[in-house]
Structure prediction request, 437 residues.
Amino acid sequence: MIGTSVALRVRMSAHDAHYADELVDGARILAIFGDLATELLIRLDGDEGLFRAYESVEFLAPVFAGDYIEARAELLAIGASSRKMRFEARKTITNVRGGFGADGETGLARSAAEVLREPVVVARAVGTCVVPEALQRKPRELYLPGLPAGPAPSAPAIVTPPADLAPDLILTAAIVGAELTREQTPHLPLTPGEVADEAARCREAGAAIIHLHVRGDDGQNTQSADRYAEVIAAIRRKCDCIIAPSTGGAVGMSLGERVGPLACRPEMATLNCGTLNFGDQVFVNSRPEIRKIAAKIRACGAVPELECYEVGHVEEALSLAAEGVIAPPLHFQFVLGVKGAIPARDDVLHYLRSLVPSGATWGVAAVGRFQQPMTELAMRLGGHARVGLEDNIFIRKGALAEGSAPLVARAAAYARTVGREPVDPPRARKLLQIGAR
Ligand code: KMH
Ligand code: ZN
Prediction:
């Protein structure tokens, strides 16, 4: 099953040290990656297989004797005999020898060691293994019991691998948001002109959809149809992106206010599929309200983006489809990591995507520091991705993103390393069947 992962935890010993100052050589880390690859092949094929080639290897931080290394491999693609995998090794515990001063004296014992507050990524790689068809277990089954991490616990222990990843990737840029302020980031676009410029920059960087909130002249969120019309017209003069206005608005808005942008007859619009704690506030989406908003989205011909912040929201979306309130093909957006709602974790995403019916599409939006790892996981699992300032204002720890476009550009670059290709708006319209429902 694509997305399955295996893990190894190893302490580097004095035997592993190869260079001065007990530095461990990179080949030792590649040996760990080789062991992980072998485990994946045994679980998938019942054979140890062979490593054919690395297409990329990065050594990102030094490893010393005494370091604890946690390494993980994940299955990216399955060919007739090839199996593509991604590897990552992180250091979680280290000897504190780096604390010695020039004179070698700090008063610390040579045996002093520490658990790192944040694990340090020491190496990443992508490579391909082969198992000749004659050696593959038949019928192909994936043996997963006892894995330290992998699919959700409720998933069956033996599953059949699905077809290969589809390369098409729809990137959404959430460029304004309802809650963000200029105090939090000076890069937030507010006026129609600023929003249009940012939309065009995101399109250039690889986004096909702009998830849109708008602000009034006072900078406050508004769901005014007139203001949306003004901003949409400004964007249209600059780029051809699909524009997906919010029907969530800001917490506390009435249903009447929230559906304001539907008067602009957008191609897409968000449909929030349940109530949740939204930080210290409550974002209310009662079942009758969801149905009313869904009916209005359908009546104006827009495709709903099904915002799911909890497992129950996915079930609710499926109920809406069963009731005929929304029409297939469904497009889910898993919003992960909102404080008070479902956490942004690998196992959570594996479970959520297992609920997606065939024929439906799905994507991930994740909050704050989870935006990058969770959207990258989504891309590796065949999902789509949303990035942008609405969900995350940092490009890396402590450094503000200079708008949403750099976040889109980073996501697009990553996509290509795992065999996905960001699509342009016309292709995204086809994939989402916009205008064809
Ligand atoms: N501002 C959040 C309360 C949406 O756009 O539909 C809701 C939100 C979701 O942003
Ligand atoms: Zn939004």
